[in-house]
Specification:
Helix content is 32%, strand content 28%. The protein is of the alpha/beta class. The protein is globular. The chain binds uracil (URA). The site of uracil has 9 residues, from helix 6.
């Protein structure tokens, strides 16, 4: 089987709505944070739709025995937020995955060279085989941060085809880089924008996601 990067842009009205709120430069920081949280919730909903491990069990309703399908609590999905901005999406993801273990990864980019480096790594020494990992990072611009994140995950035994990534806006340079290097990866994003400006920001994009979530732009 030939593996290929898959990029999903779910056609959900709530995803479109919250993306519109996030894109608007007039949106104040608290509402922007809400928009990113809601996008985290709906994009996670789409990403786990066919991915959450379930099990059948017998229960008793008030009237009769019944077979039900429940989420299997013994195989929780792992979430890796890329700090800072990935924390905004994490809030929404956690509303759907309350049992998820959260492993923080801090990655910063040099604003001149656009190279990315890891400044905080709370990943486990080794992931169990077949661990399902959901990465949260709102802006896939150059792809440099995500390449660093993927290297750190793979060093610890993660399988790219068991990794799903949620982002708000993705741009072609990041998709190209990730597709070439990690063809088994699945990406769920609210939108694919066309280009980056000379500072590596996505255009039209939504600006600096971390600054807008945490109110640090002024
Ligand atoms: N990071 C952001 O926060 N915004 C961009 O447009 C690109 C990278």
């Amino acid at each position: 089987m030939t593996l290929q990067l898959r990029v999903y842009v779910p056609p959900h009205p709530l995803i479109k709505h919250w993306l519109g709120v996030a894109r608007d430069a007039a949106t104040p920081s608290p509402l922007f944070k809400t928009a990113i949280k809601e996008l985290g919730r709906w994009l996670t909903y789409e990403a786990v739709r066919d991915w959450l491990p379930t099990e059948e069990m017998e229960i008793q309703t008030p009237l009769a025995p019944c077979t039900v399908t429940m989420v299997n609590p013994e195989k929780p999905i792992v979430v890796v937020p890329i700090l800072r901005a990935g924390l905004g999406l994490l809030e929404g993801a956690q509303t759907l995955l309350p049992l998820a273990s959260i492993y923080h990864l801090g990655i910063v980019r040099n604003e001149e060279t656009l190279e990315a480096s890891c400044y905080l790594n709370k990943l486990p020494q080794q992931f169990a085989p077949q661990t399902q990992i959901l990465i949260t990072d709102p802006m896939l611009a150059t792809g440099n941060s995500m390449m660093v994140a993927m290297e750190e995950l793979i060093k610890r035994g993660a399988d790219p085809s068991m990794i799903r990534l949620i982002s708000v806006v993705a741009a072609p340079p990041a998709l190209q880089k990730l597709g070439t290097n990690y063809p088994g990866l699945n990406i769920y994003t609210a939108m694919i924008d066309e280009e980056l400006n000379s500072q590596g920001y996505i255009v039209p994009g939504l600006g600096d996601a971390g600054d807008r979530i945490f109110g640090t732009s002024v």
